[in-house]
Structures are given as C-alpha cells and as structure tokens.
Amino acid sequence: MGMTEPRENPVSPDGQDDLPEQIRVRREKRDRLLAEGVQPYPISVPRTHLLTDLRAKYDGQELEPDTKTGEQVAVAGRVIFLRNTGKLCFVRLREGDGTELQVMLSLADVGEQELARFKALVDIGDLLSVRGEVVTSRRGELSVQATSWQMAAKTLRPLPNEHKPLNEEARVRLRYVDLIVRPEAREMVRTKAAVLKSLRATFDGHDFIEVETPVLQLTNGGAAAKPFRTHLNAFDQDMLLRIALELDLKRAMIGGVDRVYEIGRTFRNEGLDSTHAAEFSMIEAYQAYGDYDSMAELIEELIRNAARAVGRTVITARDGSQIDLEQPWRHATLFELVSEAVGEPVDASTEAAALVKIAERHSVELQPGWNAGEIALEIYEKLVEHTLIQPTYVRDYPESVRPLSKPHREIPGLVEAWDLIINGVELGVAYSELNDPVIQRERLVAQSLLAAAGDPEAMDLDEDFLRAMEFGMPPAGGMGMGLDRLVMLFTGVGIRETILFPLLRPE
C-alpha cells in the first residue's frame, strides 16, 4: 500500500459521496498543473510500447539484478502503487489487460525539481506516461528507470483499497471502478468476449449467416413475456421493445437465408433475480431442413466449443458436484421426468383431474382453469427442473405450452421441442418449427384472445408474420440460448456479474 494512498472508500454504503476533502486536494493538484502551463488531460502522451510487450520480451530472459538493457521506451498506465522515499520513488503502473510494471524515479535521473513535482502532484489512480530505460531493480524486478514523466489524466477521486473495498452493490453500480481494482471483473469482460468469438466461429463453421433485426416492434411475439412499451413520434405509433428474435429470423429464412442466426439484446419487463435481467443477450438460430434433433447437435457444439475457448469444460455445480461438458448429455421426455418425480406413470393422455390430484399431493400450486399440459409443465418446473444438474434435454412438451412448435412425429398431443437444463437452470430451447400457416394462425389467434383477455405474456396476432408464412417456410429447426446464462454456467456467478453495466435502481 503506497504511503500516499487515501484510506477512504469512494462510495459509502448508502451510495452518497463522502469525499469533499479528497477531491479538493486532488483538484488543487489539477489546478497547480494548469498554473504551471501543463495540461492535466493532454490530447496524447508518449507511448512506444505496451507493458504487455515489455513483459513478453523480457520476462523469459531471467535478467540479473541491476541489469541495464539499453532499451529506451515510453510507457503509460494507471498508478496502482506509489512509494515515495527520499531520493527514490517507486510506482507500479497497470494497463487495461491487467499487466503491471514497476517504474523507478530517482533524484539522479530526473533531478530535484521534477522529483519534487512528482511527489507533490501524482496520486494513486492517476494515468501516467513515463520515458526511460528498461532495467532490473536491485531485487531483480523488471522496471523502467524514468528520465521524465507526464500526467496522462489526473484522477479526482481516490480508488478503494483493501482496507475499505467496494461492497457488492457498489461493485455493480460503479463497474468502471470495479474493473480498475478487481482482476475478476476484468476477466469477466474477456471471458464473455471469448465466448462470443467462439459462438460466431462455430456458427461460421456450419455456414450460418449472422443478421441484425429490429429492436423496435409493432407486435409482441416469439416468446411468452411482458414487453417494454415506447412511442415512435414520427409515425405517432406505440411500439414495443422485442422480447425475442424469432419472428424476424423466420422471415429471413422464408426469404432464402437458409441458416440464419442473431446475437442480440432482448427486453422483458418482468422480475429481476439471479438468473433474470430486464435487458439481456439472446442467441437464436434457424436451420432450414433441420429439426429439434439437429438443433441439439448444434447447441452442444456451441456450448462445448465455448467452454474449451475459456478453459471451463469441467465446472463445479451448485450442489458441489462436477459437470463435465465433454461427457454425453442426457435426453429425457418431460413426462418421463414428471413420472420419476411423482412416483407414478404420467403421459400425454393423463387427464387434468388426475394431474390436479398429483399436484395437490406434492404441494404444487396451480392456477384455476389450467389444462392438462399447463399442469404437467408446472409440476415439472416445481419438482424437477432445479434438480437437473448434469446436461439434460427435456423433450416432447404438451402442445398447449409450446404454440410455435411442430406436432410430434409419433405421439399425438405432444410437440417436438426441448429445453436444455444444465446446473438446474434452463440454458436453451429448440423446436422443430411449426411451418403450417393455417395451424400457425389458429394458435396465434388463440394467443391473441388470451392477450385481449388480459394475459400480459400472451403473443399478439402478427399479420405480417402470418403473411410471410403463407409464402412458404421450409421445414426447420430453431434454437434460442441466453448468452448471459451461458457465461454464468462457465463462471459460477449471478447474472448481474456477467452483464457489464446491468440495470439498477436509481441512487
């Protein structure tokens, strides 16, 4: 801990600043720089090498202590440690990826005036540019022996430190500070980027084309969720933020983009918890002449490749067990799993009255008027879903709960759909997509009647989508997966940690 390190936390637990003194002192230093005719925020500063470059070049060489390499460099970074002794100042600089390097400023090299200015003007947190020779210190540490220094940006607020770290709420609210002080926060950004890169590479390898579709929508479709509402002044038209990517991607497929996907933001105006956010990233893909089996192969490859890309093919589950994503994944039907859970056979022909009794016996609360499919799904969600730790495709749902899916090729009353559950959380869904426009219209009309009756999650009737379907959609498989939940699986953290700047209540 540097001797000049302030010991206050920049944010008190109630989120109120308590730093007028700290900020006043630093503002005076900024003003002093200006009075000297020096810019505290110059347009540019000398920078010939990244710290990463110097580490890569010299770390393997095992140089003796007190070595002078003869290489002159200009480097820049954030001051994260500062120790001012009489004739020698030690500074540790850090750049964006977390690479750190020591800088030494001595009376002999920079002169009395510059050393005094440095001690008076530089604080922990400042962004600094330094010129000098690459050397090793007496202790053998790779360093830059400075001959000059320049402020790159003066910091007006002190950073938190180990004596007063950011609390969990402040870490999310002040994510930019969290990124400065915590390597785990920086690592999360890079993990998510690596996952995205891998997903795109896997799609590329299967000739999928990435597209972008509108966030602003006239109707609410492709999922059961409550939308955000807004207004388009130019058309004097009420609009919705999309809750899914599905209908526009299917329009693209109808137009001949046979393998299409999108990674995009979607918005659901619903409850927030450790697995749900109001704004999150979805991945949806559609494959002409595919079905829900080809989608299972695709999502398995997407997840495995992403896990390999971030070195997380074996993860610790919520119950402490190990999940090895390289092992075969289980396939089981919804009714098989419900039968296991309730200890008696249940299938697509089991009537609602019998299911109500089973639900009562197992303390599963039901809504009045639910049909057999909805009751079976509720029993599954309350008794089974959270217990599925190893990767499991839960297949073959009742028709009433998956209105955009194709009737099962063998079992009446069921549709070809699966949910992929890993670590007790739904990670992805897929369908053999419904492509009969007549049945599609019947199901969407039924949904729109529910919406008209006040169901906030029911889909509206999208006449343009139905018209597109009438031009002929090929048989297809479609899948959706939450990007943030995938990152949660690999990292074992909640959704707020995986989203760089999550939505929070105003301070």
Automatic annotation (TrEMBL):
Superkingdom classification of source: Bacteria
CDD domains: LysRS_N (cd04322)
UniProt-listed PROSITE patterns: AA_TRNA_LIGASE_II
EC number: 6.1.1.6
Pfam families membership: tRNA-synt_2, tRNA_anti-codon
Keyword field: Aminoacyl-tRNA synthetase, ATP-binding, Cytoplasm, Ligase, Magnesium, Metal-binding, Nucleotide-binding, Protein biosynthesis
Keyword check for Zinc: no
InterPro entries per the UniProt record, alphabetical: Aa-tRNA-synt_II, aa-tRNA-synth_II, aa-tRNA-synth_II/BPL/LPL, Lys-tRNA-ligase_II, Lys-tRNA-ligase_II_N, Lys-tRNA-synth_II_C, NA-bd_OB-fold, NA-bd_OB_tRNA
Assembly and binders: Homodimer.
PANTHER family: LYSINE--TRNA LIGASE, CHLOROPLASTIC_MITOCHONDRIAL, LYSYL-TRNA SYNTHETASE
Entry protein name: Lysine--tRNA ligase
Species in which this protein is naturally found: Kribbella sancticallisti
Organism placement in taxonomy: Bacteria, Bacillati, Actinomycetota, Actinomycetes, Propionibacteriales
